[in-house]
C-alpha cells in the first residue's frame, strides 16, 4: 500500500484479504456506465439485501444521479479497479446524503458479492463516518433488511445501534450518534488524516 505518488483527497489504495488491490475514490460522472454494467451482475436477492431496490437494472437516469452527488449535501465513494473513471469496473459504492432540515445523514453501501467479507464494507462505512464527522453532523443512519445479519453485525460492531421504526416493514434502522467519541480508525498510508 506504499505509494511514492501522493493521492488526491479521499483517494486511497485498499488491499482486500485475497490480495487484490482496489482504488477507493470519490464517484465521478464517468462511473455511470460501469456502474450500470456492474449492476447487471448482481442477483435479485443481492440487490434487495444491499441496495433495498427491487429491480435488476439500474436506469441511465438513476446511474447518472448516483454519479453526480451534490457536494454541499452528499458524498459518494467507489471501490474500483485502478483504471481511469469510465473504464474501471466498480465493485462497491458507499454514499451518504444529508437529510434536509436536520443535522444527520442517511447512508447506503453496495458491495459486490465477489468483494464481500474482505473488510471493504467496514472500511467504506468508516470513510462515511469520517465525512459525517467533518461535516459536524449529529447522526449517520441507514436502513437494512432485518434478515441481513452480516450487515447488522458489522454496523453494530462499529457502534451503530438499532432504533425501532414502525414505518419500516421488514427493515431495521441503524443509527450512529456522532456526538460520542470517535472509535479508532485504522491508519492508511495513502489517505491523509
Automatic annotation (TrEMBL):
Transmembrane segments: none annotated. Coiled coil: none annotated. PROSITE patterns: GNAT (PS51186). Keywords: Transferase. Pfam families: Acetyltransf_3 (PF13302). The keyword Transferase applies. Residues 22-183 form the N-acetyltransferase domain. SUPFAM superfamilies: Acyl-CoA N-acyltransferases (Nat) (SSF55729). GO terms for molecular function: acyltransferase activity, transferring groups other than amino-acyl groups. This is GNAT family N-acetyltransferase. It comes from Pseudoxanthomonas composti.
